Amino acid sequence: MFSQLLTMGKMQSRYLQYVLQKPGGRVWGQGGAAEILGMKRTSSTSE
């Protein structure tokens, strides 16, 4: 089923990269990564 086992941190990193590619690197606004992830703008800038 899985070709390799990844740590949770590596899986999160790959997923975030994948989500950022979907809207062409856009984080905020309609269709941006933050919206896709269900995050408020304040959440995505606080880290």
Short structural summary:
It is built from three helices and no strands. With 47 residues, it is mainly α.
Weakly predicted, low-confidence segments: none
Helix content: 40-55%
Q: Specify the overall morphology.
A: elongated
Count of DSSP strands: 0
Order of helices and strands: HHH
Distance between the termini: 34 Å
**What is the multimeric organization of the chains shown?**
single chain
User: Average pLDDT across residues?
Assistant: 85
The class by helix and strand makeup works out as: mainly alpha
Q: State which percent range the strand residues make up.
A: under 5%
| CA-based gyration radius | 12 Å
Main sheet summary: none
Number of helices: 3
Structure, explained:
The chain has 47 residues and is mostly helical. It has a domain at 21-47. Helix content is 51%, strand content 0%. The chain is built from 3 helices and no strands. It has helices spanning 8-21, 33-37, 41-45. It is elongated and about 35 Å long. The mean pLDDT is 85.
Salient structural properties:
47 residues, mainly alpha, 0% strand, elongated
Write the layout of secondary structure elements.
Elements: H1 8-21, H2 33-37, H3 41-45
